[in-house]
Each structure stands twice: as C-alpha cells, then as structure tokens.
Amino acid sequence: MDHSHHIRLQEQELTPDTLTGATIYGPGDEKIGHVAHVHGNGREAQVIIDVGGFLGIGAKPVGILARELDFMRDTDGAVHAVTRWTKDELKALPEHRH
Predict the structure, then answer these.
(1) Residue 65's domain is classified under what CATH number?
(2) In whole numbers, what is the pLDDT of the chain averaged over residues?
(3) Using CA atoms in the order 69, 73, 78, 82, what is the torsion angle rounded to 10 degrees?
(4) Residues spanned by the domain of 64
(5) What pLDDT does residue 69 have?
(6) Alpha-carbon distance 22 to 69, whole Å?
(7) How many domains does the chain have?
(8) Contacts of 45 (CB under 8 A, 6+ apart)
C-alpha cells in the first residue's frame, strides 16, 4: 500500500474512539495486527495491539506507545498505522493484561 497520499493524524485525533480497530502494518507493509483498545489520548497513549492469530483467535495483545506508530487515514477515511516493529518483535513483547 502506498501511504504517501494518506493524511497523518494530528495529536488531538489520537483517541480511543479514532484508533480502536485500526489495522497495523509492519515495515514490509504486511498486516501484523490491529488496535484492540487504547488507554489514554495523544502520543503518550498506550495502544494495545492484537498481534497474529486468525480472526481474533490466538492473537497476543501487546502494548506500545502511540508515538511508536504512524497513524494516518487512507483515501477512504479508514484509520491505519505503520510501524518499524515487525510481527515477531511485537510478539516477543510481554502480553498485555487488563
């Protein structure tokens, strides 16, 4: 996916309502997970990503800060993010527990 024409989200848009459900793409532009939920707002918010699994089964929830992700809207308005983290690197993080 060519992200060059996508619009970066502003700090005030980094909210649970906006980010929950967003697809996360890795450095090779592969889908590596989705945002399960968010704690807080802005670049310091903790974003919980379900990594791996199939149709939500077997996915591992991990938490990283919003600033580690480049959130944007595509031409259809759908929110997604790109990260430098690979799927394996995210899966190696400690599991997020509610």
Answers:
(1) 2.30.30
(2) 92
(3) -30
(4) 6-91
(5) 96
(6) 11
(7) 1
(8) 14, 15, 16, 19, 38, 39, 65, 66
